[in-house]
Amino acid sequence: PAAATAVWADIKERQLPVVEATLDLLFRACARSGAGLPEAISIMRDANRSGKLTQPVKAAALVSLIKWCKEDKSSFEVIINEVDESERTPEVLETMSYANFLYSGIDGYSK
Questions:
Q1: Is the pLDDT of residue 109 over 70?
Q2: b/e per residue, 17-34, with b = 16+ CB within 10 A?
Q3: Which of 27, 47, 62, 78 could form a disulfide with 52 if both were Cys (CB 3.0 to 4.6 A apart)?
Q4: How far apart are CA 26 and CA 43, in angstroms?
């Protein structure tokens, strides 16, 4: 898990395609290593800047961020803020809300 950043650097260096499963595994590694949401968001932003994220992959990545790295209401808000205004369709917001519900505890935020 501690190698998530190194794995991401290798993906970029080798110009490998970025797919949903890749980001899910990287975000899970970030969560397990203690790097958490800040490192996972850094990877996602980097992928977005480099043009490696298609809209479907980014939507799946947001769900993975919620699944692995969301800890509380404020971290969910940080994830929501990663969605550009132009991408905030009802479908995207509904998917994120559902993921928040699905991967949350009884009060919506405890694990």
A1: no
A2: ebebebbbebbbbbbeee
A3: 47
A4: 8
